[in-house]
Amino acid sequence: MNVRLDNEQWQSASTATLGDILADLSERAHARSRIVTTMMLDDRRITDRDIDPQLLQESSVNYHELVASSSTQQEIIDSAQGTIDRYRGFVVEEGTALAHQLRMGGQDLAPLDLWLGKVADVVEIIGNGPKQPGTESPARIIAEWMEKLVEARHARDTVCMADLLEYEILPRLSA
After folding, report:
1. Contact by Cβ (8 Å): 115, 98
2. Which of 7, 101, 124, 167 is 20 to 30 A (C-alpha) from 16?
3. C-beta neighbour count of 164 within 10 angstroms
4. Is 70 exceeded by the pLDDT of residue 130?
5. What is the largest CA-CA distance in the chain?
6. Within 10 Å of residue 70's Cβ, how many Cβ atoms?
7. Which residues contact 91 (CB under 8 A, 6 or more apart)?
């Protein structure tokens, strides 16, 4: 089977399974600090949902060509920047509403707990972004304030939680 990854092309061994070929493909991309982002097996687009044990065991002789493309992690993040910004804005809006509820004496902390998971996603995305030399990572600073928020949450100190959200966490998430 003919295999192509970006501009590199090779022939797989006739005894290779699709699993063998996909593993080799992934290793070649990884060696160039890239991630496989698309795959076409003959005329069929393959996604992670299609990769199951049965497909991995199939012989490569049943197929003619596997064409794949790859991207760097930064290229993937850059291409998703609009979506990232919208999600970040949504998380900030939700956090602002939570701060208001806490200031009004709200005692139901379940929405806060759900929101914390979303903040973790944003912090991970921020942490994978470009680094500014000589400055502390914004993700690390937010994570430190989040620890204080979790402490206040355990103490059920709604005023402290609202203050942390309003004055420390949300402005940094917005930046």
Report:
1. yes
2. 7
3. 22
4. no
5. 69
6. 22
7. 115, 118, 119, 121, 122, 173
Other beta carbons within 10 Å of 97: 13
Please tell me what DSSP assigns to residue 161. H
Cβ of 51: how many Cβ atoms within 10 Å?
Answer: 14
Helices (H) and strands (E) in the chain, counts: 8, 5
pTM value is: 0.67
Tokens coding 65: 């060509």
Residue 48, Cβ neighbours under 10 Å: how many? 8
Q: Name residue 11's beta-bridge partners.
A: 2
Beta bridge partners of residue 68, listed in sequence order: 5, 39
Of 4-13, 132-141, 150-159, the poorest mean pLDDT is in 132-141
Relative to beta strand 44-46, strand 35-41 is antiparallel
Nearest to 174 by CA among 62, 80, 89: 89
pLDDT tens for residues 60-118?
A: 999 999 999 999 988 998 899 899 999 999 999 999 999 999 999 888 899 999 999 99
Domain ranges of the chain: 2-71, 79-174
